Amino acid sequence: MKPAKTMAMTLLTLAAVIALSACSSKPVVGVLLPMTGEASTYGESMKRGIDLALEMDQAVLPTGFQVVWGDTASVPETGAAEMKRMAGEGAVLFVAGTTSDTARALLPMLDETNSIAVSPSASAPSLTKDSRRFFRVFASDELEGRRAGRFLYDDQDKTTVLIFAADSAQARGIEPPFRLVFEQAMGGEVVGRVALDDDGWESESADLLAAHNPASVYIIGYGDETIEALRHLRGKGFEGPICATSAFYTSQIVENNPELVEGVYFPQPAFDIQSEAQLTQDFVNSYRQRFQADPDIYAAHAFDAMRIVIFVASESKSFSPVDIRKLLAFGVKEFPGVTGIIQFNDYGDVHHNPIMFIVKDGHVINYERYIEEEKAKIREKIKELLKG
């Protein structure tokens, strides 16, 4: 055989081997959560949800399925470095992006590592618009801000509000749509804004409360920030309705601060622990049995995110970034989740309208169901009085 022909045959054989190797790429998934640092309460809930998804879907895991774990330490830059390390260990598809600030830091790394992420909870509106590699199962902040605005004005009949806001991507995503609905659409008045990251915010808040006597309060922050604002408001004797964000609620926050969170309202994406849907009840019962606690929205969304990832890993022929993105964009059709039906739009978003919840006696309750139950109690009391 001539040398040139031999070289050509060798190159063809090598190309075939490479192609075969690509087609049989082992499905390695990265799970990147804040297991330490200020956001660790969210990470702990999410890890529980992910562990449960892996356990419940054990029978459908594809051959060679592997999970690589990482800790963002609640620091965006650390999260980006961890993603790079995990990609070096073979991870192509990630469950990552817990907070919006960390998710923002991961977007360039997705390009650098040629990988795809499914976020369980990052909610800043621009994230999915800024990267075609970023999908999420959590509703955008735009929907949550609008729902909170309608709730305070319409449901609670309050025309003035004082806003407490942290300096975060989450707050910057929620506040504009809240104002759009409460001020412009409804005609309400925002009497002031307290920046929770500023020195002396408590003094500024006290002045605004005294000067304007707002009918309601809206707190836009994560758990610890919201608790500090609630502690301040309780100390000042504020008696109006207080609405927080979905980011405030974790099981640990409610358990550790029962008096502060009592009566607080908040919108959250559609996960209702009391839902009669079979999938939701299976998840809730399994979670309670394993962890002796109720799942919160972060455990639920992480559970759904991992089940989506398992589905993609099972369906993908090559587990390449191109194939993964194609499956997420076009292959996930009305996927049943405990947070609702999951189907991504052109940007990688789901459309789950938030519903309102209230904390009562240490329990997080669907607000509409709570109102109906209270009405039923009143009707029963009226019947008893009429009988007497």
TrEMBL record:
InterPro entries: BCAA_transport (IPR051010), Leu-bd (IPR028081), Peripla_BP_I (IPR028082). Residues 29-346 form the Leucine-binding protein domain. Keywords: Signal. It comes from the Bacteria. SUPFAM superfamilies: Periplasmic binding protein-like I. Residues 1-21 form the signal peptide. Gene3D superfamilies: 3.40.50.2300. The keyword Signal applies. Transmembrane segments: none annotated. Belongs to the leucine-binding protein family. This is ABC transporter substrate-binding protein. It comes from Candidatus Sulfomarinibacter kjeldsenii.
